[in-house]
Specification:
Blueprint: H1 4-18, H2 23-42, H3 52-65, H4 68-84, E1 102-103, H5 110-122, H6 126-138, H7 150-155, E2 157-162, E3 165-170, H8 173-185, H9 204-218, H10 227-242, H11 245-252, H12 257-263, E4 266-267, H13 268-277
Parallel strand pairs: 1-4
Antiparallel strand pairs: 2-3
Helix pairs in contact: 1-2, 2-4, 5-6, 5-9, 6-8, 6-10, 11-12
């Protein structure tokens, strides 16, 4: 039969489902919690009898193998699981990190994005072109593409429900017109706009592979071209014009403005150019 941790994991998964966590969040939580429980079982805590020293040792083991940011992302589900099990006193403090001021150079630039769009159109990949434009012009997550329906496009706004929150996202007029034209050309009169040949909404992996092929065709670095980078592009472009990070957080569906702030960081190169323009030496 199942041991103590297996039973708790099964109950925890049901609890996350009842809380209407997204499927992506549940997969992430379950992966990290199972890893934690395997480690506990290997270190003599199969029956659920654990100590604070043991959970601290787990944190140290993670720190020996992963970056601090990854460690913190793994500890959050573990702490949530421990609280669910009534073991609040066993929760582990996350690692303190210095505030990040610069973003990675792997961000997709506007010029690279436009090159991808042009390449998709030139090679007849109209659905992929519109999908990229929708992600970049709205900032929605790839799993929120199911909300891009013919009905919502006609209204000019999307109704997004994700992570227990509901938000409205408006579509630029030009994008709306192109989406409706695409639907008319392809006989899509209702429901999701973006469908595979099998009639399903393309998933993250499917989109990822299509984007990688397009990146090679367009001559854009492949590591820059993945679905979430279009969301980052939206955030940076919007913030450059509006400078209202609180409103941007609402548009992106973030509960914490600190999450949004990471989307709007300057690259090291841009910071260096700013310092040079100051002309103080």
């Amino acid at each position: 039969g199942e041991n103590f941790w297996e039973k708790k994991i099964r109950q925890f998964e049901k609890e996350l489902t009842r809380e209407e966590k997204s499927s992506t969040t549940i997969r992430k939580y379950m992966h990290d919690v199972r890893q934690f429980c395997r480690w506990l079982s290997q270190n003599g805590a199969e029956t659920g009898k654990i100590t604070k020293e043991l959970t601290i040792a787990y944190k140290q083991d993670l720190m020996d193998h992963y970056r601090i940011s990854s460690v913190n992302s793994m500890l959050a589900p573990v702490n949530r699981f421990l609280r669910f099990c009534g073991m609040q006193q066993m929760c582990i403090k996350t690692c303190r990190t210095q505030r990040q001021y610069f973003r990675k150079e792997e961000e997709l630039t506007k010029e690279e994005y436009l090159l991808l769009v042009e390449t998709a159109e030139r090679t007849g990949r109209i659905r992929l072109k519109l999908l990229m434009q929708t992600l970049a012009c709205t900032g929605i997550r790839v799993q929120e593409l199911t909300s891009v329906t013919v009905e919502h496009v006609r209204e000019g706004k999307l109704e997004i429900y994700n992570k227990g929150k509901r938000r409205q996202v408006y579509l630029p007029r030009k994008l709306r017109k192109e989406l409706l034209s695409y639907c008319a050309d392809n006989g899509i009169s209702q429901g999701p706009v973006f469908l595979t040949f099998g009639g399903q909404v393309p998933d993250r992996v499917n989109i990822w592979y299509m984007l990688k092929r397009l990146a090679r065709r367009a001559g854009v670095e492949e590591q820059k071209v993945y679905p979430h980078n279009f969301r980052h592009l939206f955030a940076r472009s919007y913030y450059d014009i509006n400078r209202d990070i609180a409103h941007l957080a609402d548009l992106l569906g973030h509960s914490n403005v600190e999450t949004t702030r990471r989307y709007t960081l300057e690259t090291v190169q841009a910071e260096e150019e700013t310092l040079e323009r100051m002309g103080l030496i």
